[in-house]
Amino acid sequence: MESPGFSDFRKWMDKWDTFKENEDKEDKLRSLINTNGLIMFFQKGDSMFGCPEMGRIAFARMKSEDDIDSNFIALNLSSDEPSRQIIQHKDLDEVKIMDIEDLIEKVSGK
Fold first, then answer.
1. How distant, in Å, are the alpha carbons of 47, 56, 66 from that of 63?
2. Residue 62 domain-assigned (yes or no)
3. φ and ψ at 67, to 5 degrees?
4. Which of 7, 55, 63, 65 has the highest CB neighbour count under 10 A?
């Protein structure tokens, strides 16, 4: 966000506004993660997801046993309105596990 002001003070205020917007995104994201008990995080395509313990167990079962009938529900954290998505065995090649801090950094724009 760039304001039309010409002063250095205005530029610093713009930087502060951007910082606060990103901080608010991070706080909302951490709250969403904690509220839903998300413990496993991954990227699939351009979207980033989180899932609770049951999703992590289903993911491990799908990876180790080649259980093609298993699936689990993950929460899309990279959209403005988080939505649930079913992850199936056919999606496993696209799933890249990631650390929570990496996810938060990418989604909140820090």
1. 21, 11, 6
2. yes
3. -80, 95
4. 55
